[in-house]
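CHAIN AND CONFORMATION:
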Amino acid sequence: MALLHTTRPTADRHIHRRPAAAAALDPRLKAPRYPDNLRRLIPVLRAHGVHTATATFSGKGDSSWVDDVAIEPAVDADVTVRSDRVARVRIGDDATAERAIEEVSPEEAFEEIAGEIVAMRRFHWDRGAPRYGTVSIDIRSGNTTVAVHWLRAN
C-alpha cells in the first residue's frame, strides 16, 4: 500500500496539525516552520545548481525518523542556509522548547524540513505496521512530494 502526496511549498493555504505534545510545550510551536524554511532553502539550492533533494524516512510504533538526506548535485561544505529550528530540553519531568533561526548546512536544513513534514502528516505510526518513504523536492519547480509505503506483516 502506498500514499503519494504533492504540495507547492509557496502556497499560502497550508493547514497542518502539530502533534499535541509539541503544542503543549509551547503554543508558539503550533505554527509549521517548514514552509518558511523551504522558502529560504530552495533559492540557495537553485543558486548552487541543485536539481533534487531527497530524504528517506521510516517509523513504527509512535516514532518516526529521517534515515538519510541526499542533495544532488552536492553543494560545497561552506554553503549555509538560515533555518528556523526547535530545540527541546528535558529536565526531569519538565520539558522546554525554544525556536531559533540558525545557520546550518543545506543537508541539515532539509533534514529538519523533511522531519517536520513527516511528523505533521501523521501516518498512523501507532497502528503497528512499519512505514517508510521519501520526501523529495524538485528544486526547479519547488514541488514537494511525499511517498509513503506500509510493510505488511507476514
About this structure: The helical segments are 20-25, 34-47, 106-121. The first helix runs from residue 20 to 25.
